[in-house]
Write a structure and sequence with these properties.
The protein is α+β, with helices and mostly antiparallel strands. The protein has four domains: 66 residues, no CATH class; 105 residues, Tetrahydropterin Synthase, Chain A (2-Layer Sandwich); 43 residues; 38 residues, no CATH class. The protein is built from seven helices and ten strands. The strands form four sheets. A three-stranded antiparallel beta sheet has the order 3-2-5. A three-stranded antiparallel beta sheet has the order 6-7-8. Strands 1-4 form a two-stranded antiparallel ribbon. Helix 3 crosses helix 5. The longest helix is centred in the last third of the chain and has 51 residues. It is found in: Membrane. It is a single-pass membrane protein. Its main location: membrane.
Amino acid sequence: MDKLPKVALPVVFILIALVILISKSAVTIGSGEAGVLYKTFGGGVVTDEPPMGEGFHIVAPWNDVFIYEVRQQELFEKMKVLSSNGLEIQIDASAWYQPIAAELGNLHQNLGEGYLDRVIKPAIRSAARSVVGRYTPEQLYSSKRDAIQDEIFEETKKILDKQNVQLNEVLVRDVTLPNTIKDAIERKLKQEQESLEYEFRLVTAKKEAEKVTIEAQGKADANRILSASLTDKILQDKGIDATLELSKSPNSKVVIVGGGEAGLPLILGNN
């Protein structure tokens, strides 16, 4: 009985050592994550093998595993940049990005876990300054927001393409101008709209006038053609035809042949 504690003591030490060893060796990588293995005695960061995937892993206790989120993430940035004429503009933008899983070892070796601050933020800020500097406040306020969004994305993507990071999208959520500039632009846009409406009314009135003129000209031409075609002979023939039709009427009448103008029959009735 006196010897039992002496025998159990090494066993307890062994068990404790095993627990420490297992805790140091066991690595659990969560959903949407990947691990970069660092071999203390084997060359450092492993870059020539795929990163460790989700689930439970056993590694040598003297090695380390650095876990990265490889899902799409969002960066929200408020940036103050200058327009082409030197006015300060505030851009609110979001960038959707994620590390390239297959290149995670290189990312860890070259940039480390702080790659967001080291590469992505400077890249999007530089691209925003470059793109916004090409436009006037009027263009940024009205028609060019989609254009600057696409251009910021393309310029940022060029910077990040060699940094083991994938840029998925850049969204410009808001463009804020100084109040004085914003008010001036809105007044100008309102005046332009009123001018366009006035021009539209002038064009409409001009088209209506042209329509009336064309119709009047058509009637005048028709009357002129008709007048030119009505010779004395034609009028006489028409008068004779009309007289014959009237003579067939049951009403009492007297027809005097050759009694009217130009020798046309003259009809005398009791009405």
